[in-house]
Write a structure and sequence with these properties.
Blueprint lengths: L1 E5 L4 H12 L3 E6 L13 E4 L5 H11 L3 E4 L6 H6 L1 H21 L4 E7 L22 H19 L4 E7 L1 E3 L17 H9 L5 E5 L11 E2 L1 E3 H16 L5 E5 L5 E2 H12 L4 E5 L8 E2 L4 H7 L8 H14 L2
Helix pairs in contact: 1-7, 2-4, 4-5, 6-8, 6-10, 8-10
Uridine-5'-diphosphate (UDP) binds next to helix 6 and strand 8.
């Protein structure tokens, strides 16, 4: 298939482009390189432009004629979204609308959307299944929820448009061959921060909040290896190509680790007993997010290979050591 990948130069996008290429699909990346890198795109062309530029999207779609679009390009940092909500509604919601307008004009009928567990807010039931109410507690989650609703409404009136929304839990790790990985220097995520601290890039790792209603007081997340998540995209693509209906899937393993547990694993894997500082809560963080991914396994046949936090951290560490 011909697949247009927005954000294909970014962390998750580049792992999906790699898999698309390995499986014989033709990928074309559209990326503004704000956090991504040209070298991370191992297959296909890259168009460097922004989704706020509808003419550039139109030109790209008309030239490439994709069968399907996988849409990663977005801003993804929860505390930043609290501080600068308009950036999130512009990048994540309005820019997606630009893309969808062009896809409607050009009659491109298959769409895979990077959604997030943040659409659930602070769910009452754990693990969370896809029927849990959408109640985001930060602008990042709201910006993604709004896009999901736009997709729902668009598909309802247009039978030749189908989509899969994948709700990512906490994506981590790197290509096991260490060809690509998280390369955005200012990345704020826990495992990347921990590894950079182990490398000596900062004096200590901060733990944001130790008074949550969890066994050790720190937040619990479901960490999923980026290659297992990439596989979910390839399965979603196949399901759309096979004519299946629009659908929504959680992407996580179904069990969580606290921030303290993650710190212990990072120290073990790196062998570096870096310092930790316990500080106050970070804005917008729910106490616990753990996926019920039964649907992804049953409906799409997802069989994850790397459900092992030590392995996830190990792949991220091997990659991190290659970065300067
Ligand atoms: N976290 C932390 N220190 C850091 C980065 C993150 O204690 O330097 C915590 C954060 O408050 C959250 C968890 O780790 O409870 C996961 O955060 P991350 O930013 O990795 O992902 P998010 O769940 O926000 O998407």
């Amino acid at each position: 298939m011909r697949v247009l990948v927005t954000g294909g130069a970014g962390y998750i996008g580049s792992h999906v482009v790699k898999k698309l290429g390995e499986q014989g699909h033709i990928a074309c990346t559209f990326d503004n390189l704000s956090t991504g890198n040209r070298w991370a795109v191992l297959y296909g062309d890259i168009i460097v432009d922004d989704l706020n530029n509808m003419e550039a999207i139109r030109r790209t779609v008309r030239a490439f004629r994709p069968d399907a679009v996988i849409h990663f390009a977005a801003a993804i940092v929860v505390p930043e979204s609290v501080a600068d909500p308009l950036k999130y509604y512009a990048n994540n919601t309005a820019n997606t609308l630009n893309l969808l307008r062009v896809l409607q004009e050009e009659k491109i009928g298959m769409f895979i959307f990077s959604s997030t567990a943040a659409v659930y807010g602070m769910p009452e039931q754990m693990p969370i299944d896809e029927l849990a109410p959408l109640a985001p507690i930060n602008p990042y989650g709201t910006s993604k929820m709004m896009t999901e609703l736009i997709l729902r409404d668009m598909a309802a009136v247009n039978s030749s448009f189908r989509y899969v929304a994948l709700r990512y839990f906490n994506v981590a790790g790197a290509d096991p061959k260490a060809q690509i990985g998280q390369a955005y220097a200012a990345a704020t995520h826990l495992i990347t921060r921990g590894l950079k601290t182990a490398k000596g890039f900062s004096a200590r790792l901060q733990i944001f909040g130790t008074d949550y209603d969890t066994p050790d007081g720190t937040c619990i997340r479901d960490y999923i290896h980026v290659d297992d998540l990439a596989d979910a995209h390839l399965l979603a693509l196949k399901s759309l190509a096979d004519g299946r209906k629009s659908d929504i899937f959680n992407c996580g393993y179904g069990h969580g680790f606290s921030v303290r547990e993650v710190v212990t694993v990072i120290r073990d894997v790196t062998g570096i007993p870096f310092l930790v500082e316990e500080t106050g809560r970070r804005a917008g963080d729910p106490a616990q997010l753990v996926a019920d991914s039964t649907k992804l396994r049953k409906v799409l046949g997802w069989q994850p290979l790397y459900d092992d936090l030590s392995f996830i951290v190990k792949t991220a560490w091997e990659w991190e050591k290659k970065l300067s």
